[in-house]
Amino acid sequence: MAQDPYSILGVARGASEADIKSAYRKLAKQLHPDANQDNPKAAERFSEVTRAYDLLSDKGKRAQFDRGEIDADGNPAMPYGFGGGGGAGPRGGFGGDPRGGGPFGGGADFSDLFSDLFGGGGRGGGPFGGGTRGAPPKGGNIAYRLAISFIDAATLAPQRITLSDGATVDLKLPAGVESGTQMRLAGKGQAGPGGAGDAIVTIEVKDHPHFTRDGANIRLDLPITLTEAVVGAKVKVPTVDGAVMLSVPPGATSGRVMRLKGKGWTVKGGGRGDQLVRLMVDVPADDAALKAFAENWAVPRDPRAPLYG
């Protein structure tokens, strides 16, 4: 006869459902077979605590056990049936009857619990991604870091990465890519009995000497001459897609921002932001003619007057 399920989980008989679930979560993490491949006793203990949780998480079975109607294996208590015909009863132990109500053949549904514990419902239908007990483990994942240029990230230019085995893979960058974005290459990790693991590529976007990102937009400070600012001009402006012409209006001042539509960052969901061009009037410090002109130029107004009301 199996041990008392309360003792196995280390909880009192009057423990709440939350306490039972919490105790099982803690033990399952410690004893999960994937984390103890060289410790068969851990796998046995994992099976034991899983059976205990299977029983206690089912309100009906827990009530039957507390009343003494069934034993810790879920079999009818003697003298009714002498343990239900031998073995571990209808659940059949860890792994369970595949026709049962839950992943372990009992009435409990473990899908939400293991989704929380191990990051999802698994790859093969079982709570640990293997589908059945004893499924061979996959190989480990391999981490890579790929540094890409600011312009490539903004325009989603295709990238190529060389893996540890020497093979090369062409990557299509996702919209909205930024430093820290991760891309998963299925089956490109370490080999294992259950198949190869994955390659996890973390993107690092390099800084640009002139462009900076501002959300979906790209900012650029553009120097212009005093003449261009005073009389206006068409000037060449670099963008991540190549140079374009920008019309500077007459009387432009430093700090004025011009917008180039659709020349910004590629964003999630499609489309692109804009390029924001800040005009910066560049005044030479050693131009004698300009200095002579400025000294004799009568300024018609005080540009700081609005600051004082």
Q: How large is the radius of gyration?
A: 34 Å
Which H/E pattern describes the elements? Answer: HHHHHEHEEEEEEHEEEEH
How would you classify the helix and strand content by structural class? alpha+beta
Q: What is the rounded distance between the termini?
A: 91 Å
Q: Share of helix among residues?
A: 10-25%
- How many DSSP-defined strands? 11
Give the helix tally.
8
Spatially, the strands of the biggest sheet line up as 6-7-11-10
What is the beta-strand fraction? 15-25%
Describe the largest sheet: 4 strands, mixed
Mean pLDDT: 82
Descriptive account of the structure:
The longest helix is centred in the first third of the chain and has 17 residues, at 40-56. This protein has a four-stranded mixed sheet. The protein is elongated. The protein is built from eight helices and eleven strands. It has helices spanning 5-9, 17-31, 40-56, 59-66, 111-118, 150-155, 226-231, 288-295; strands at 142-148, 159-162, 168-171, 182-185, 199-205, 212-214, 217-225, 233-237, 244-248, 257-260, 275-282.
